[in-house]
Amino acid sequence: MSGSKVAQNNYEVGKMTISSLLLTPSPVLIIGAGLLGTSIALRLRQGGVEVYLADVSPIAARLAQDLGAGKATAVAAPKLVIVAVPPDVTPAVVADALEKYPKAIVTDVSSVKQLVIDLIAVHPCANRFVGSHPMAGRERSGAIAADADLFAGRPWVIVPHEKSGRTAQRVVQNLAVDMGGSVIQMSAQEHDHAVSLVSHLPQIMSSLVAGQLTGETADSLQLAGQGLRDVTRIAKSDSLLWTSIINANRKEIAAALRRTRKELDDFIKAVESDGDLSTISRLIALGNEGVSRIPGKHGGAPTRYTEVTVLIPDQPGQMGRLFTEIGQIGVNIEDFTLEHSVGQPVGRAVLSVIPAHTRELEIGLIQRGWQVISVGEEQR
């Protein structure tokens, strides 16, 4: 930010004057009052930015308004338009915004970029458009799932094209910073290849695994553990939205699926063949190697944490009590999962902490009456 103070009013970004707690200029029009659009709006409103909301569903726009995300009314001259609609309709909505608001910078938050860039780069007003994509979301959709902190610490990809103007790029980058995102710049092709691996393929695999459960008996499913819940969590995602995403990025996704199919075929042959344990071991080890490359907290290098497991009675208020008392102990929780045992009136809270703080946390919890049952170290 070149030493500028975010809280200072009335300073310049290109030729645009900003009067808010954030760098993003007022007023902002957000088209699409779903999870991403409403989450962006909530964050902007917290910073004092004037936000207007539009959606093909007036009910969705009014719900976002009721949540405090802005005004579900028209605006004549927005300075920034954010298009937050499914990928299959994003190019048309972006083009319409460029024509309808001739002085506005326009960006989109679609999870597929090449489709948008290819169609908008030839538009006569293409200099006012810069693509972007926040790498954040939930399995729940709609305004009701929105969170002003959804993007905090998450990558926010900026995808300019050859005609994107400097002012447009600066404004969109400032938006990402205002959202608390970690700014990364990529080409559309680089972005679509990356998300096919880190986002789209995991969704497909999760859905396929969950789909195998539909014909199983209730007795079999009672054996489900945390591993199954972890793998299938995102299988609850919106099927219509993901159909649009997969169709828009089908070339990159098809390539990823072909690579996965080859390894799956190798695995099937190894399982069907007597004694081919080396192939099974190799493929499992390959997964270990891949997991070790996933960035750690805030996008940094993978970090080794110690896991402290605590039994939690399945009663109202116990989770809140646990975290309140961890706060009193003064140990930061780096990650958290909650597991349940079949037929047991307790859950297991698995708390990931920096190894140097493990003993302090254990002692503090035991002194406060908690049952600490295990400690293990795991690379995350």
TrEMBL record:
Matching PROSITE patterns: PDH_ADH (PS51176)
Pathway(s) of this molecule: Amino-acid biosynthesis
Looking at the keywords, is Transmembrane present?
yes
Keywords (A to Z) from UniProt: Amino-acid biosynthesis, Aromatic amino acid biosynthesis, Membrane, Oxidoreductase, Transmembrane, Transmembrane helix
Instruction: Identify the residues that the record assigns to the Prephenate/arogenate dehydrogenase domain, covering every copy.
Output: 26-302
Q: Where are the transmembrane segments?
A: 21-42
- Look up the signal peptide feature and give its range: none
Checking InterPro entries in the record gives: 6-PGluconate_DH-like_C_sf, ACT-like_dom_sf, NAD(P)-bd_dom_sf, PDH_C, PDH_N, Preph/Arog_dehydrog, Prephen_DH
Source organism superkingdom: Bacteria
- Matches recorded under Pfam families: PDH_C, PDH_N
Indicate the family of this protein: Belongs to the prephenate/arogenate dehydrogenase family.
Protein's recorded name: Prephenate dehydrogenase
